[in-house]
């Protein structure tokens, strides 16, 4: 067998390292050379520009651009080689098929021998690499663009290589759910999310390589790798469609800036550029305009947690149903029939009969009513102007504006806001629309109003986006998805966990979302990788998800500290912090029920070293001790988590239960909780 012993493998690794180093040195010097060339070409251009005619200037510019673009490509290759220098590959498969091919080494990027042109390392996204993720020793196959390749897998080996040195090598006969995965999961967290290429599991690989779904919805338990997989899926697509899609064609709809920062390492680690991100509230501003003021999602969550007003809850719940979207659709599709009454228009003594307006509008193709009225006014004014000219009558320029005004007046409402407000009269529930002080919209009205605006006025969509990634799907309502459906006409990956809704009154399940995207494909992921069995079981007792299967990894039991007084609780918190400081974990998340409580605790602990507060204005996720709210902690993870104040006074509603579940499931290795008084009902 080729490289059968560890010694042979190590020698082979050295030979590969040499080839990589060789190429790296060549590329670096050619890059230095092209930087000098570009500088000289630019200098020459500016020195001679006065003597050049237009065509010469254009030709010179073109030449400079082409050298720049080729050196950008070289810089990309250099970046890839830097990754390979550290760890050229992480796996090997010996796959035998009719063409007789045998060992395939798999790495983050592909690498070939310059002289022989032979592929030495296969990119983890290449078709053959899927054998590593999908197959066990024995008959095996993989999909290629030309069909299925049938063969036989004879060996599967995994390596841990860092700084060019082999740390270990493991023969893995069954799945990748073995020693390497255990080692990866037991290590302390990195500051940011990391790539999982070496241990992607079979069911995860299926999601990553799914090319057919227009809209792919992933419901996955806490810690099941949804976010990781979605990012690897993006990297896969950038590889698979490299000639037609680039990272600038992709967009991630993320819950906040910290989350965006937290996931920002994965694509660069995979050798791809990061993709742009946007938040739902930015979309709302794009649609509604800067003048419309509205409550943020975080403010809505805080208000529910702090006020717990049943009427507010009722309004939110009502607007989060699929039925609500159906009613809004029904109302908006009949605006013209129900609220537009054509009338005769008299201009300069000539009458345009209402019947003509009605007939003209009926002949127009489907378009938002406001556009239809504008077009009708323009076209009617043009026709009347022709008529005036034929009859030698004077056509005054202001008649066109008058026509527009008169046609607009045939519609019962002046603005999108009026149209939206009337919807509640239409459904006989005017009490469900409440403006906050200073005419601010409640958050639950923001997207129904945006949907109304798109239906009534139409607005520019995000036509440039070819793939949209929506994370934390459970926190968005059917109307929000309907808005997304109108604005993004591209492929989508939507992921989340209905068990982690930070506002259970407006949470969306996979069923709700797929009813908005009937063509979607839905996938459920049940295996959970983040937390130890002990932490997973503890979280399960708070909010049970019968489908969850935690990866077999053990750790300390979570500890719930009952404290007699607030002072004793603060002392306990300080003790836990001291323990963290002397231990080996890199980060400790102190997760409070609300942002206000997080701020209070931060105030109390301010004297402590390297404690930082994470709120909705934060932009970065850092190592150390972080105090934050359960809402803000969504999507993040910590080696160790401390949840203070888990008394029944603080945590008693269904919403509190969800918050507690989210907070507990952020912990990878260690979880502590403290309370004063009576322990919350959600902990047994
Ligand atoms: N195949 C895998 N190999 C190694 N680690 C994995 C694998 N899948 C997931 N993980 C790890 O599990 C943790 C959770 O992953 P991720 O944050 O993507 O899950 P999630 O489903 O989005 O979580 P949540 O919904 O709870 O925020 C991360 O540390 C990730 O690296």
Characterise the protein shown here:
This protein is of the alpha/beta class and 684 residues long. It folds into five domains: 6-86; 91-202, no CATH class; 203-286 and 470-526, P-loop containing nucleotide triphosphate hydrolases (Rossmann fold, 3-Layer(aba) Sandwich), CATH 3.40.50; 341-409, no CATH class; 533-676, Rossmann fold. The protein has 25 helices and 25 strands. The strands form six sheets. Strands 1, 2, 3, 4, 5, 6 and 7 form a seven-stranded mixed sheet that branches. Helix 21 links the parallel strand 18 (527-528) and strand 19. Helix 5 crosses helix 6 (226-240) and helix 21 packs antiparallel against helix 25 (654-664). The model has no long low-confidence stretch (mean pLDDT 91). The chain binds adenosine-5'-triphosphate. Adenosine-5'-triphosphate binds next to helix 4 and helix 6. Adenosine-5'-triphosphate binds at residues 181, 184-185, 196, 199-201, 204, 220, 222-228, 497, 500, 529-530, 635, 637, 665.
Topology, element by element:
Elements: H1 6-48, H2 54-86, E1 91-96, E2 104-107, E3 111-112, E4 119-123, H3 130-134, E5 138-144, E6 147-162, E7 165-171, H4 179-186, H5 202-208, E8 215-220, H6 226-240, E9 250-253, H7 257-262, H8 266-269, E10 276-278, H9 280-288, H10 297-306, H11 310-318, H12 322-333, H13 335-339, E11 345-347, E12 350-352, H14 354-363, H15 369-390, H16 398-409, H17 416-426, E13 435-436, E14 440-441, H18 443-456, E15 467-470, H19 478-487, E16 491-496, H20 510-516, E17 521-525, E18 527-528, H21 533-542, E19 549-550, E20 559-563, H22 566-582, E21 587-592, H23 595-605, E22 611-613, E23 624-629, H24 630-633, E24 638-643, H25 654-664, E25 667-676
Parallel strand pairs: 2-4, 8-16, 8-17, 9-10, 9-15, 15-16, 18-19, 20-25, 21-23, 21-24, 22-23, 24-25
Antiparallel strand pairs: 1-2, 1-6, 3-4, 5-6, 6-7, 11-12, 13-14
The structure holds adenosine-5'-triphosphate.
